[in-house]
Amino acid sequence: MISTPRVAALVLAAAASAPPVGPDAVWKPPADFRAKVTAACGSAKDFGACFVDRMRAAGASAAAVEFAKRTDNQGYMTAFRDTGRVDVANVEYPFRANENQLVFLVNGDPAMIDVDDVSRIDKKNLATNATYARLLEKYPNLAIFPADRRPGRGPGFTQRKTGGQVFVVVYLLQDGCHACETVGEARIGFEFDVEGRFVGTDVLRVRSRGQI
Predict the structure, then answer these.
(1) Which of 25, 91, 110, 174 could disulfide-link 67, Cβ–Cβ 3.0 to 4.6 Å?
(2) H helices within 42-129, ranges in order?
(3) Counting beta carbons within 10 angstroms of the beta carbon of residue 162, is it exposed (0 to 12), middle (13 to 18) or buried (19 or more)?
(4) How many CA atoms lie within 13 A of 133 on its CB side?
(5) Which pairs count as long-range contacts for 102-108, CB under 8 Å and 24+ apart, including other chains?
(6) d(CA 18, CA 104)
(7) Which structural domain, as residue segments, surrounds residue 66?
(8) Per-residue pLDDT tens for 94-117?
(9) pLDDT tops 70 at residue 11
(10) Intra-chain end-to-end CA distance of the chain, in Å
(11) Residue 200 β-bridge partners
């Protein structure tokens, strides 16, 4: 499911005063890591803190552990992409029911942005898109869900001539729920200025199912 504003706020607060994120925070857990976390933390009073302790015990670097703390003790970084002032971090949340793969835009201002924090998307801008409006008319329960967030699957990236950056993130448009029919997709641009400050989002393209 798309991240809630509360979870996004916790992640942002954890990242606000932290050092820059880099490739040294990437971690590949051992094959038995999930089973060991389940056994050790299943009845823990603070599952997240126990999860991070198990990461440390399994050999995660200090940078990897620090990054996990920035996710409110929910996940670890699986890949890092250096794209300039603002970078891309792929993250695994192993104990989520759905959407275990996430993408964060890091090292800008704010320090971490979860691209699936729906509050970042300009709904008024989206509503003015003709294709989206037609889909919404046909599917009144139209909902936005993450597309494939595995490493190597995006987001797209453009460097502006002015020095700013745009990250192109794809979302699925579904008929009401996570398991419901996919009826289209939306491409949203996350824009940053030359100083790495988040400017806002822009709807770049919406396509119906037949156009995908």
Answers:
(1) 25
(2) 47-57, 62-70, 123-127
(3) exposed
(4) 6
(5) 102/3, 102/75, 102/146, 102/149, 103/149, 103/154, 103/155, 103/169, 104/11, 105/167, 105/190, 105/192, 105/198, 106/15, 106/20, 106/21, 107/20, 107/21, 107/196, 108/192, 108/196, 108/197, 108/198
(6) 15
(7) 5-211
(8) 999 889 999 999 999 999 999 999
(9) no
(10) 22
(11) 191
| Entry pTM | 0.89
| Contact between residue 55 and residue 76 where contact means Cβ atoms under 8 Å apart | yes
Closest residue by Cα to residue 67 from 6, 20, 114, 34: 20
Rounded Cα distance between 121 and 143, Å, is 13
3-class secondary-structure state, position 183: strand
How many distinct structural domains can be found in the chain? 1
Extract the tokens encoding 138: 């046909």
| Residue pLDDT, tens place only, 13-66 | 555 557 899 999 999 999 999 999 999 999 999 999 999 999 999 999 999 999
Cα separation, 4 vs 91, whole angstroms: 17
